[in-house]
């Protein structure tokens, strides 16, 4: 059941013990606001924004209530996509992909289409182990987003899942622009994990291109940011990646300590899917005896 706008505004106002006169403020008469609540008038954009501000409620909260305290359609797709914390969450990625496919059967939407492409790219990278197969999907997303003057939460989330598909210098340039946008809009970005995700992805991109010194710098930045936002599964990955980098920089003992530390975090927090993903990453990136780490042996 979907409530009419006026019904929701009235419900929220009454729950907060606000009067119609208070909500109307100096932007409209009380009688005008009463008509909006009675569903006899649609507010202008300016009046609507004023009403939300006076009610101390966001647009997302309003639509959630309007949809009987649930999300559906594009709102649910975007919400679930933004909530994806790692590409290792394959079941969740697949669920988002299926929602996109179903939605696009009857609707056209650039953002939902881009999310679908990103899900396909993630599948190609993490299941088929093929950046070559992922690139066409990443490029389709980039063709649209590269033309935009600014990137906001959803664009930044999309880009974070594709920038490493491009040649090194291009990928770095895209990611550094995105980090600048995140810092500029830090008060309105809807995902506290976003900056750390970019830093983690930059670390691995640089490592795979043998830029170990720069990768080391971004690994440290990843650790700092994950610690700041208390993102512990990201912190585990950051420690492991820094450890792998140190091993390549011929500081194997320091590296092994950090790898073991990262794996321990995964174990303590029961991050099973993350643990499996980082073990797979260790097999791909190093020649270390991973079985010793699993057994707790760093000799």
From TrEMBL:
<dbReference type="InterPro" id="IPR010982">
    <property type="entry name" value="Lambda_DNA-bd_dom_sf"/>
</dbReference>
<dbReference type="InterPro" id="IPR010057">
    <property type="entry name" value="Transcription_activator_Rgg_C"/>
</dbReference>
<protein>
    <recommendedName>
        <fullName>HTH cro/C1-type domain-containing protein</fullName>
    </recommendedName>
</protein>
<dbReference type="InterPro" id="IPR001387">
    <property type="entry name" value="Cro/C1-type_HTH"/>
</dbReference>
<feature type="domain" description="HTH cro/C1-type">
    <location>
        <begin position="9"/>
        <end position="62"/>
    </location>
</feature>
<dbReference type="GO" id="GO:0003677">
    <property type="term" value="F:DNA binding"/>
</dbReference>
<dbReference type="Pfam" id="PF21259">
    <property type="entry name" value="Rgg_C"/>
</dbReference>
<dbReference type="InterPro" id="IPR053163">
    <property type="entry name" value="HTH-type_regulator_Rgg"/>
</dbReference>
<dbReference type="InterPro" id="IPR011990">
    <property type="entry name" value="TPR-like_helical_dom_sf"/>
</dbReference>
């Amino acid at each position: 059941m979907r409530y009419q706008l006026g019904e929701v505004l009235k419900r929220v106002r009454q729950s907060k013990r606000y009067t119609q006169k208070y909500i109307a403020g100096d932007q409209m008469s009380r009688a005008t606001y009463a008509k909006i609540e009675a569903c006899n008038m649609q507010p202008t954009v300016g009046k609507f924004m004023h009403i939300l501000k006076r009610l101390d409620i966001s647009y997302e909260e309003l639509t959630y209530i309007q949809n009987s305290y649930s999300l559906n359609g594009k709102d649910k797709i975007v919400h679930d996509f933004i909530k994806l914390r790692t590409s290792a969450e394959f079941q969740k990625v697949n669920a988002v992909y299926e929602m996109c496919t179903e939605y696009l059967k009857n609707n056209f939407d650039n953002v939902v289409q881009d999310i679908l492409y990103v899900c396909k790219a993630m599948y190609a990278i993490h299941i088929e182990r093929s950046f070559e197969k992922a690139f066409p999907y990443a490029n389709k997303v980039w063709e649209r987003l590269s033309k935009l003057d600014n990137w906001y939460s959803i664009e930044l989330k999309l880009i974070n899942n594709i920038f490493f598909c491009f040649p090194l210098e291009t990928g770095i340039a895209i990611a550094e622009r995105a980090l600048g946008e995140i810092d500029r809009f830090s008060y309105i970005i809807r995902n506290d994990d976003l900056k750390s995700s970019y830093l983690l992805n930059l670390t691995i991109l640089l490592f795979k291109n043998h830029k170990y010194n720069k990768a080391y710098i971004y690994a440290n930045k990843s650790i700092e940011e994950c610690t700041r936002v208390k993102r512990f599964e990201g912190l585990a990955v950051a420690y492991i990646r820094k450890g792998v980098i140190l091993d390549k920089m011929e500081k194997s003992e320091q590296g092994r300590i950090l790898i073991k530390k990262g794996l321990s975090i995964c174990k303590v927090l029961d991050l099973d899917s993350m643990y499996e993903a980082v073990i797979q990453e260790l097999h791909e990136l190093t020649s270390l005896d991973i079985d010793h780490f699993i057994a707790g042996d760093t000799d």
